[in-house]
Design a protein that fits this description.
Number of helices: 19
Distance between the termini: 36 Å
Strand order of the largest sheet: 3-2-1-4-5-6
Radius of gyration: 25 Å
Oligomer: single chain
Length: 408
């Protein structure tokens, strides 16, 4: 059987909800051995978040938790106790990578900061994920995903690229900013792992959720930094969408499509799809530069035409004419997609509490180190005996004693 891309890499995850666990999940899916640490009795906060199987709240049946924690081992540990901290240090000595999301200063206060841990494990790579990073005037600010998502400026840019840019900003879908940060963190960790292969030394990675969001909109955000003035709405739209681009999220009579008619040939294809309307002959819509200055008006006129057409009509017609347009799929559309089914994107995983249900798989297919489901998300403390006894050498009597003392 073929190995995995990160086979042999050992990861400790001391994180909750989405960003840190998603980062660790990406590594686990690549074959790393991930040990997830949860607070005794309470567990990861994601266990309390829906959706729940059959809409019945249960800590072992949260769809959010189940998805984020497949392919991981799970233990409970209270690092606020002296014994808990000693055990954590043992795990840090064993690990290649440590992912944590405590507020700045917490790990140092417990004597578990990177400088302390690297003294006994200089190859350790430690990644700390916080709302605003470990330094700066905002370092101690608390924040929910809604705060960090808006702090990154992404909702403003999303509005400017929509067909209704004058409405107030709204939250992004789901916990998109958290997943974006988890992906950025995983990429940074893999780079540090590569560097360790050349130098033999680990390093510390300071990850800001705000900066992760900004990085996704780096082109748009750089306009203000260089021009030192706020753009007009029309120019913001042009800058965000590219010179001559008309489109964004647009409503059809049975759903939505996303249109991006940037180049001249794309615009001409769109006009052909619309039957070459008379208004398109106006000088202000001629050429990419003029359209960029009047993109808002052009988009509004295209929207009026689309309102009476079906998604399929716009999508297929645009596709045949070389127009970048795509249907906005619902969850039902995706689950039933013949493309995704053919590629095996959705996979069934057996879990002791939920039974056999489908999960999203991975967006990649390795020819030599294929992805596979090794285990479902762990029950709370499911692998305590495996980690504490088999790995660290504690006895079952030790486990009973530590459980009674609130350590695990």
């Amino acid at each position: 059987m073929a190995g995995k891309a990160l086979q042999g890499v050992k990861v400790i995850e001391l994180a909750k909800l989405v960003a840190g666990p998603y980062c660790a999940k990406l590594l686990a899916d690549l074959g790393a051995e991930v040990v997830k640490i949860e607070e005794p009795l309470v567990g990861d906060e994601a266990r309390k978040r829906g959706p729940f199987l059959n809409d019945v709240p249960h800590p072992e049946r949260s769809g959010l938790f189940l998805y984020l924690n497949t392919n991981k081992l799970g233990i409970t540990l209270n690092i606020k106790t002296e014994t808990g901290r000693q055990i954590f240090k043992q795990l840090a000595d064993w690990a290649d990578i440590l992912i944590e999301d405590n507020p700045p200063g917490v790990m140092a206060g417990l004597g578990l900061d990177y400088e302390k841990l690297r003294m006994t494990n200089p190859r350790l790579i430690m990644a700390s994920i916080t709302p605003f990073g470990q330094t700066g005037p905002y370092r101690d600010y608390k924040a929910y995903p809604l705060n960090t998502f808006h702090a990154g400026g992404e909702p403003f840019m999303m509005l400017q690229m929509s067909s209704t840019p004058d409405r107030p900003p709204v939250k992004g879908p789901g916990l998109i900013g958290e997943y974006d940060c988890g992906l950025s963190a995983a990429a940074a960790i893999l780079c540090a792992l590569y560097a360790r292969g050349m130098t033999g030394s680990g390093q510390y990675i300071d990850i800001s959720k705000q900066e992760s969001a900004i990085a996704l909109e780096r082109l748009e955000n750089v306009f203000y930094a260089n021009r030192k003035k706020k753009e007009t709405e029309a120019m913001i739209t042009a800058a965000a969408q590219g010179a001559g681009m008309v489109g964004g999220l647009m409503r059809c009579k049975d759903g939505y499509v996303v249109l991006a008619a940037m180049q001249e040939n794309q615009w001409q294809g769109l006009l052909d799809l619309m039957g070459n309307p008379a208004w398109a002959q106006d000088e202000k819509f001629q050429g990419e530069y003029n359209r960029s200055l009047n993109a808002r008006e052009a988009t509004s006129l295209v929207q009026q035409w689309m309102s009476d057409r079906t998604m399929e009509e716009v999508f297929r017609g645009g596709q045949a004419r070389g127009v970048p347009v795509g249907a906005v799929n619902s969850p039902q559309d995706l689950v039933n997609s013949p493309q995704l089914r053919f590629r095996g994107f959705f996979v069934e995983i057996e879990h002791p509490e939920t039974g056999r249900i489908e999960y999203p798989g991975t967006p990649y297919h390795f020819s030599q180190t294929p992805w596979a489901v090794e285990r479902p998300a762990p029950l709370l403390g499911q692998h305590n005996e495996e980690i504490y006894c088999a790995l660290l050498g504690y006895t079952r009597e030790d486990i009973v004693r530590m459980r009674e003392n609130g350590v695990i």
